[in-house]
Amino acid sequence: MATTPPSTGRGPLPGHVAWVVGPVVAGPSCGTPEREEHALRALVDSALELGIGWLTIQDPSCGRALREHARELADRGVALADAARPSSGGSGGPESVVHVESPVLQVLLAGERSGRREIVAAVQELAARGVKPDDVHERTIGEALGVPDVDLLVLTGGVRRVPDLLVWQVAYSEIVVIDDPWPEVGEEPLRAAVVEYQGRDRRYGGLVAPR
Questions:
Q1: How much is the pTM?
Q2: Domains along the chain?
Q3: Which of 42, 117, 149, 169 has its CA 20 to 30 A from that of 163?
Q4: Contact assessment for residue 63 and residue 84, using Cβ atoms and an 8 Å cutoff
Q5: Given a cut of 70, is residue 116 above it in pLDDT?
């Protein structure tokens, strides 16, 4: 659910932001592991400061730099989860890298071309549980996926195509394109994307009439 953050005060905050890393900029100091780690950590810091509850990050490394600091992040209330690994509990959703009790921020780490695989895994889970076709509805699939709908989809590096990421959950997302290449983006671009989101009149694919 969306909430109103004291840091922006312009409207509802996106409950779930999906951030897609575009082409990595070339250069002597750009695209290095240190620079990418700094960018990822800045992104998480910004999400924490804004009060975002879910942040999905899709990048070629699957958030390797964040995984290396999983326990440190857990101490700050940040729970990392692996989009490529379903929960072993059988209740749907990705598996946590480090368990965090009552996390402040859920960070889902996703690689490229993970969206369709996620849906296939959810359908396989429903079939394994013996769910009858007549009992399969949007809510059933959503629960099997275990990840909430995306409110704001941010594409960096000037990318202007819908990624293969959380295909089911991005159906009614607001999309913001940032031309700055990765990793030359950080806290301010996320804040700017959230402000733009807050100024939009969401229609949810026409399911909600305009105000």
A1: 0.84
A2: 16-23+34-85+93-115+149-198 (3.40.1180.10)
A3: 42
A4: no
A5: yes
